Amino acid sequence: MHVFKPCDLTPLTTQLAKNHHRQLLVLCGEHDWAITQYARLVDAGAEQTLTLSTHKQLQHAQWPEHLHEILGQEFSVALYDGYSGITPNKLAALSGTVKAGGLLILILPELSKLDNWIDPAIKTWLSYGYQTNASLFLKRWQRLIPSLPISVLSQKYGANLNIPASQDNHQNNALQTQCRVISTLRSQLQKGCTSPSVLSADRGRGKSATLGLLVASMPEQSFIICTIQYRAIKTAFKHLALALGIEYKGYEKQLANLHYVPPDQVLTMSLDDTIVLVDEAATLPVPTLVAIEQRASQCIFSSTLVGYEGNGRGYTLKFADHLSKKHTTYTQLSLTQPLRYNHSDPLEFAINRLFALDSHYQTDAVATLNSIHFTELTAPQLELDESLLQQTFALLVSAHYQTTVNDFRQLLDSPSQRLFAIMQQSNILGVCLVNIEGQLEETIQSAISQGTRRPQGHLLPQQLFHVQGQAAFLSSRCARIVRIAIAPQQQKRQLGTQLLNYTEQQLSATVDYFGSSFGCDPQLLQFWQNSGYQLVKLGFKKDKSSGQYAAMVIKSQSALQCQQQSLQSYFEKTFYYQLMNHYRDLPYSLVLKMILKFKEKPLCEALLAQFRFIVTKNTNLEQYSPLIWQVITTHPTLLSDLPRISQQLAISLLLQNNTKEWVQQTLSLHSKKQFNIALQALVKELYARISIKSE
Predict the structure, then answer these.
(1) Is the terminal CB of the chain with fewer CB neighbours within 10 Å at N or C?
(2) Domain 373-595 classified CATH 3.60.21.70?
(3) What pLDDT sits at residue 363?
(4) What are the distances in angstroms from CA 448 to CA 45, 96, 127, 444, 445?
(5) Which H or E run includes 300?
(6) pLDDT in tens, 400-422
(7) Strand-pair partners of 551
(8) In the predicted model, is pLDDT for residue 308 greater than 50?
(9) Which region, left, alpha or beta, applies to residue 183 given φ > 0 means left and ψ of -120 to 50 means alpha?
(10) Region 6-160: CATH code
(11) Could you tell me the fold of the domain covering 171-335?
(12) Contact status, residue 391 vs residue 406, Cβ threshold 8 Å
């Protein structure tokens, strides 16, 4: 058994300090041995030390639930106790707190045992009823760690220090780059340039600090900074305060000429001549970014390309596509060198490899799709084939703005997941990630019904049950489509539809229904409707980042047709009521997509006669709107071919019950006469459609 002293690390820490670098040090062995060695090597109570562990013998240890409790701090030594559970988001975030010359210490069993070791965090990725006897995520680590710039202190094998070669300090270059970026942005803004600027960087490059210093350099100009979490932009406020010589206590939402506003409020407030800074733009959906860009006269979008709480590759591709279509030119800037430590940092390199944060999808366009084939990829396949794994994760990252390194572990360690892919030779063109849910035993069903249990996973069956209390959705087997990701350059070629069809074919013999939940926008809803899925539920809370409600769609096999029809009928009946209250702000185009799929009822003769009567009259809104509402809700497809202004008038005014004044302003109907003409046109167009249908 090896025992280590602080002096054993001196050659390593001395060289790291010279290089202005950081490194990962793995303590491998039995838990108590590793805790003892850590106590010998490090003063855990020192101000510059952070210890993450649930071990009771570790003094000053903590196990924070949220990442914001970790980020924004700096330490010379940070410990992560792997025996407390490997949560990738937490470990990756902890790595960002280590100062230049410092160490991130990770406690693990001997590397030779990782392929058969189950850590406590594995339960996070196990749906109720599923078990596993190994972690492929940790098995991959077993293979990778010896090849990375990582030092190891082993209980069994002794010390293997990875002392880096000497390297010049390039931090002055990073500061000069930051100054040039600030100067370029300030010049663009002062010229009144209306095309947006995009600032991109990996974590630790001083991106948020750059925004704060930019604001400080233009003290007479008003700025708004927005992001999902206020804590993410504290660095901007901190550097603004330092530059202006004022106090920042760490919680102010307004400081000098900078004001923090959440993204959803930016979409509704008056901006005037205020410049909008969108930090961590990759954590927002592209439609939200587009809406902000359209409302602001001047704006800067800043985002992390590789980070701990999400990955910006997908944002970069999709938003850049929008900007290039709208603007002939726009400013693109980047910060490539880290500010807090020297470039080629061993810790950053190791963390990026361990969590596949450096995954890049090859963007070469495929000339022909003739040679493609569909297949299922298993977790063992992905663990053995690093190229397949990196391609898969890069695709998932590009498809969703909130993909994190926790999702990377789930990809390898969740036995309830299935992955289907479109391949061309060894290249992946698209993936469909599915979670198998349901088939819960009666005791669990009863507990769910009574509200005493909420079993891990099984999201779709539980949510469907809580709509009408239909236990069939709990007892039946479900395939929840978690995500469909198609290579950016291969989109709009029907590959997503083909991949979904293949997935259904592979699973149809073993599941009773398919379903999915997503942020509801017209394009996505259309995709699912075209594939035969029915909308059965719309959430009541908007997503803070997207401003969208969660939609739930299902497609059942014959055994559950009655239950699905009951859900559809219930949703349709309640939706018209909710439209006049909770969903008054839904875009009319989305409402139209929904109601055109609703089941229609025949128009009775009495209703037709009454409607026929008002066609020749000057339509009085207060008197006749209930009649028009009844006609539309009975037969919503009457709206399908109407002019856009008539569709919007019918939905915004009559179905959503918005005020006459709001509708007039939104539709640019500036006078009472224009409004009445538009309303009369709507009535005549509806009657014309009724006449055609009755022929």
Answers:
(1) C
(2) no
(3) 58
(4) 45, 40, 15, 6, 5
(5) strand 299-304
(6) 757 889 999 999 999 999 999 99
(7) 518, 538
(8) no
(9) alpha
(10) 3.40.50.11040
(11) Rossmann fold (3.40.50)
(12) no
